[in-house]
Write a structure and sequence with these properties.
The protein is mainly α. The chain contains 4 helices and no strands. α1 packs across α2. The longest helix has 14 residues, at 11-24.
């Protein structure tokens, strides 16, 4: 990724950028990039990481989900005798 240096920034602009960064709780770099994107009408793409984890989480069919729910029904109630 490229870097850009801005020369001759006046105190007021510097102060406003720093205030904005403090308000947002972000770094100066992230704040400036956000301001430039907004000014240029560029909407940053939000990353959806769902696909990266699909191999770790199974997806049940409706039938399998119904069977699972049916099979665990007995665990929804507490038998008081078990706790004596």
């Amino acid at each position: 990724m490229k870097s850009i240096t801005v020369h001759g920034m006046d105190k007021q602009l510097d102060q406003k950028i720093r205030e904005k960064a403090d308000e947002q709780g972000t770094s100066l770099n992230k704040t400036i990039k956000g301001l430039l994107q907004k000014a240029l009408g560029i909407i940053p793409q939000k990353k959806d990481h769902e696909d990266e984890f699909m191999d770790l989480f199974g997806i049940w069919s409706d039938d399998k989900a119904r069977k699972f729910t049916s099979n665990i029904k007995e665990f929804e109630s507490v038998d008081i005798e078990d706790w004596k």
